[in-house]
Amino acid sequence: MVWPNSSKRVYPSLGLVGLFSAVLVMLSSAALDVGDRSQWADENTTISISCTPSEAISFLRWYETTLGGELSSATQIVQLFTLDGTVTWSAGVDQSHFQFDSGSADYPLTVKSVTLEDEGSYWCEVELDSGNPNEQEDVELQIRKIPTVVELMHIDTGANYSNGENVSIIAGENRFSCAVPGIKPAAKFIWELDSKDLNTFDERNVTSSEDPRLVDSSSTLTVTVEADSTLKCSAQNKQDGTTAADVTLTVTLKLKPDPCKINPCQNGGTCRDVNGEPECKCPDGFTGVTCGGRASTTPESTSESSTTIGGPGPSAPTATDGLTTGQIVGICVGAVALAAILLVLTLCILCRESLSTQCSCLQCKSSVNPEKEGGTTDKEALELNGGSTSNKEKA
């Protein structure tokens, strides 16, 4: 039996499928092979990026641009002219930092001791001997800054702990914070209490204040501790699929008596542990070590106050009898100035009287020694006064 027009209905469709498949093969064979197009490298390590052409080439060039940037905005690093093997480095490129292997089939570009400045998109472009359009592919290189410091803090007391330290806490619910600053990318945390994983905790990541390219990662844990225990916080930000910790801090928790177990605070005051001593935080209207006293009605006393039991009481008020501190100081300064003025006047009066006494003495001396001072004799003075000389002078 002959099927009419069967060839027309079957073979053309097969031809289209074959042609489409051939085009896909051509396109796939024309693509450059750069391996993993998204790669991570640890800071201060060395990484190589490959570029394997699918056919013979006349030129190969490596470029660098910002992460996610296009080839049009990239800066050329190095060029290879394959006909004679000439390698040309662009001006300003540090050849001790970059290395290019022109003799390898995958033409790798190596970056030594990578830093955050090396993060970006690296483009490989080739010119084909066949005359086909140039081929180009990029690799996004990101730099990992490994956590090297971990900080553990007791949130309720503000105490910071060091690795291996024995710390005293109160039995019951305790809150801890674990932080790793200045890293990239953000960290993942693992909490353990006596080698048992704790899965309920919060994580937070904020941009580093020291370098906006980095983040500060932290985790907050609330855990109930009923006996002496070992607490461990670990953090890692690996990008190779492994989960081993980069940094770990372990402390031994030692239970201590609760100073607020018998609440000493009155009138609704809140007790808290301050260096092993109870401290009462008083509500509005109350003051004192145990919040047993009534606070004054002045505006300054309307806020809550805290006083550690056994510690110094509240400071003395800064005003007396309704006078402010500034007024009191002004009165004292005025009194001192007035006293100084009176002292000066007294000294002036005494000095004047002393000068008058000295002048009177000088006049007396003048009458006794007339020749020296040019005055009259005693005899003349007596005659002038109607008197006479003594018998001794007459003889």
TrEMBL record:
SUPFAM superfamilies the UniProt entry points to: EGF/Laminin, Immunoglobulin
PANTHER family: FIBRONECTIN TYPE-III DOMAIN-CONTAINING PROTEIN (PTHR25466:SF9), T-LYMPHOCYTE ACTIVATION ANTIGEN (PTHR25466)
BP GO terms, sorted: cell surface receptor signaling pathway; cellular response to lipopolysaccharide; immune response
InterPro entries per the UniProt record, alphabetical: CD80_C2-set, EGF, EGF-like_Ca-bd_dom, Ig-like_dom, Ig-like_dom_sf, Ig-like_fold, Ig_sub, Ig_V-set
SMART domains reported in the protein's UniProt record: EGF, EGF_CA, IG
Start-end of Low complexity biased regions: 295-309
Key word Iron present: no
Keywords annotated in UniProt: Cell membrane, Disulfide bond, EGF-like domain, Glycoprotein, Immunoglobulin domain, Membrane, Receptor, Repeat, Signal, Transmembrane, Transmembrane helix
Biased composition (Polar residues): 386-395
GO terms for cellular component: external side of plasma membrane
Segment forming the signal sequence: none
EGF-like domain segment(s): 256-292
Domain Ig-like: 12-140, 147-250
Bilayer topology annotation: Single-pass type I membrane protein
Keyword Nucleotide-binding: no
Segments for region (Disordered): 293-318, 368-395
Disulfide bridge partners, by residue number: 282-291
Protein location: Cell membrane
Transmembrane annotation, as ranges: 328-350
Protein name as annotated: Uncharacterized protein LOC110988931 isoform X2
GO molecular function: calcium ion binding
Feature: compositional bias, Basic and acidic residues: 370-382
